Amino acid sequence: MGFVTDTEGFDCFLRELKKSYRVYAPVKLKGRGRFSDTDSVRYGQVNTIEEIEFSTKSDFSPKEVLLPITQTLFYFTEDSVKEPNTDDRKILLFLRSCDIHAIKRIDEIYLRNGSEDVYYKKLRDKVKFVLMECEHSFENCFCCSMGCNTTREYDLFVRYKDHKVFVECRDKSFEACFKEVKQCDVNPRFVKSNEVKVNIPENIDESIFSNSMWKEYSARCISCGRCNLVCGTCTCFSMQDIFYRDNKKTGERRRVWASCQVDGYTDIAGGHSFRQDKGDRMRFKVMHKIYDFKKRFGYNMCVGCGRCDDACSEYISFSNCVNKLNEAVR
Alpha-carbon distance 267 to 87, whole Å? Predict the structure, then answer.
């Protein structure tokens, strides 16, 4: 069912909704970009539709709403453990098709990989999706090659144009909010092609692990981990126990994002460490995204959002790497 309203009408909907929902969407952060006098776009809570950045791809993925960068799991004292208080409101999340596919990958890892992660599930069960369409392919995107350019897994679709808001409502629980609004036909438009094309290799042999192509990244990569942090499907974390200064026997345990590209990630007892070479780390990341995950779950982990290429300070292109891998396999 489709509806059309104006900016004020949709803002009224958001105000009413915020009584029981937290609304997250990409927002523009002035002066917070990679370079001086540039902006950044990442996820934050919004109150009006004009705050939402529809025309620009977000620098960070929406996973930071479901997997906070730093998340306190519990507080502890000498004789007790307590989980932190949580916001009981549901979550309405504005995101694009590739990001909806990315959250499906996170669900596989945290919910359907042998056991359920209770902390992730607690947030995930609250989420409803609002689809944002891409009128054109953004720089470095290759979602079409990964089959993630279209989706029907959303509760609302919103298009904002010329101060008019067009809404497709696929969740009946929202229909009452639009009962006084004019109905119309609304269908999302999806990107059908990207400038960047990626060919995923088939029949990968283990001999590719020692191919000389990985040596290029030993020289170029600086192990900053930015590609992992902006990625919508990277899910690795480390645990930190924080002890308070005023009482060394009390503190909290936190889950913090980690990166397979940074020093220390593979450190183990006895002072040993795997994949110290940066080329080996790049190989591990690439093979996980387009080979290992698929062997386990039946489809590729990468969704083609291109954020890793956008973020890399050394201009290393993941899409180019996969195409080089395809040539090497052939």
Answer: 36
